[in-house]
Amino acid sequence: MRVEDAVQIKILGPLSAEVDGTSIVPTAGKPRQILSLMALYPGRVMPVPTLMEELWDTALPASALTTLQTYILQLRRKLGTAMGPGAPAGVRDVLATRHGGYLLQIAEDCVDVYRYEKLAREGQAAFATGDNEVAAARFRSALDLWSGAPLVDVKAGPVLDIEVRRLRESRLVTVERRIDADLRLGRHAELIAELTDLTVRHPHHEGLHSQSMLALYRSGRQASALAAYRRLQRALVEELGVEPSPQLQRMHQAMLAVDPQLDVLAGPRNGSTFDLFAA
User: Which of 40, 74, 77, 191 to pair with 176, CA 20 to 30 A apart?
Assistant: First the structure.
């Protein structure tokens, strides 16, 4: 196995980076930021200005370039210790210097983010063709790669902060899609507890509330579904000064009318039951 392939990095939770089981994660904060940012772009040159922005934002010290080079040296030393003296590739082949920046020369599938995104894409493709069992399984496998908030133990600068926000949003979308697939499979009753928790943690998220309402409605709990709508409506009006979207209002009216569109519908279609009520 090439050394580049022996590196395994986890971003979806506490930062973890190993070479054949030996950790290469530095203890100091700024080298951790560098490793995290470069791991998000494996096989691509990370420009020096981007690394500097992450480390110091606009408050660049006079010694910024020299200090950055010192941090890179520290990372290479960690790599060298883990790789051992008999490694077929040199440390500088794995963490390479390129014109204008640095390159972490590892395959994308050595980083959990890329495995997660691949599984999520496979889940979405299956969902779009109506293969809901496969879709739900792929989405679950993608979510199983998470062990907490992304880079929870890394103090993120402005560049990493954007990446962390993106990953959090991506995870929530994947959760929604997995629930959509489960709803298509008639698993509404077993989703109620999970959706109750999700709607508490995301009190203004209409997609999750629509799923919670639908799971309750299909479980024979029409009154609870309507009560869930009223709670969301109250929260939106009192806290944000807005009413639920026309789409959710139409779904609410459909529940009052016991509309058959709300029944479990299998087979290929572009979106969720909630999407049926879009304008």
Answer: 40
